[in-house]
Design a protein that fits this description.
mainly alpha; 0% strand; 289 residues; Farnesyl Diphosphate Synthase; 13 helices
């Protein structure tokens, strides 16, 4: 179990779950009758897609020679020899298959729009590491994360409960997606030298260290405009300002991103993810009050 728990990258899973929770809370705040089975099924699907994406990334990076001995990131099970590429790839495929199976009920409930979103999410999870030109090897990785782990996740969860889209859901999806993208940016900033040697043109490799740090700060700070806007909107109130309490966590991540490098950036991954989790949780609590 430890093997597969490590392979699933548990520290990243909140990035997939937080948008689903917040999307559901927005729907409730706007008057929708939240259905618990739909909410739980959405959570499970998001979790399985994230795990499948992580597993395929683990084996793909190993097979392409990206996980070299000098790699400074967290342990990867295929590179460490804990599991064979076949085992990890099969586990990733099973995670995607389980997500599709779980999603059948959501499609029945939400219709063709949810079918399209679900298929696109699974395809995107595969495309991140798979194929001739994986997204993870391009400057589009952060945009991919912002879109699918932000806007799509929040709006999909919101739509399943309310049957419609809302400006608040889209804006919140952008905010949470921006912070999720910041997590990937830290990862790619840390690995930039190895990625360049391997021919990976990540956004961090294209921008360089200084601009990567600036973008990270922007991705972490821009979301804090959202609770200010929501506090003065017709459907929400000043309690959404609770999300501002996550600002110190964001500032810690920004500071450490600026002054650390190499293996010392590993804790910054967790700090950035924690800031997103705190922001989303506090925002949801503020909406519920």
């Amino acid at each position: 179990m430890r093997l597969w728990w490590t392979a699933a990258r548990p520290r990243t899973l909140s990035i997939a779950l937080t948008p689903v929770v917040v999307g559901c809370v927005i729907a409730w705040s706007e008057g929708a009758a939240v259905q618990a089975p739909v909410f739980l099924a959405t959570l499970v699907c998001a979790l399985l897609i994230q795990i499948g994406t992580n597993l395929l990334n683990d084996v793909a990076d190993f097979e392409r020679g990206n996980d070299r001995p000098e790699r400074v990131g967290p342990l990867r099970v295929t590179a460490a020899g804990w599991a064979t590429p076949h085992q990890v790839r099969r586990a990733g495929a099973l995670a995607f298959a389980a997500a599709a199976l779980c999603g059948l009920g959501l499609v029945i409930h939400g219709g063709l729009s949810i079918l399209a979103l679900g298929l696109a999410s699974i395809a995107a999870g595969w495309a991140y590491s798979g194929g001739v030109r994986p997204v993870s090897h391009s400057p589009l990785g952060e945009l991919f994360v912002l879109t699918f782990f932000g806007i799509v996740a929040v709006c999909g969860s919101h739509f399943l409960q309310s049957g419609r889209l809302s400006t608040a859901a889209i804006a919140t999806g952008f905010a949470l997606g921006a912070m999720a993208a910041a997590v990937l940016l830290v990862n790619n900033h840390r690995d930039v030298e190895g990625d360049r040697k391997a021919g990976r043109r990540t956004l961090a490799a294209v921008l360089g260290p200084a601009h990567s740090r600036t973008l990270h700060a922007a991705l972490m700070l821009l979301p804090f405009v959202l609770p200010l806007w929501l506090a003065f909107s017709a459907r929400f109130n000043a309690t959404t300002l609770l999300a501002l309490l996550a600002l110190p966590l964001a500032l810690v991540a920004i500071r450490n991103m600026r002054c650390k490098q190499g293996v010392a950036l590993n804790p910054v991954l967790g700090q950035t993810a924690l800031a997103q989790l705190a922001f989303g949780t506090l925002l949801a609590i503020g909406m519920l009050l």
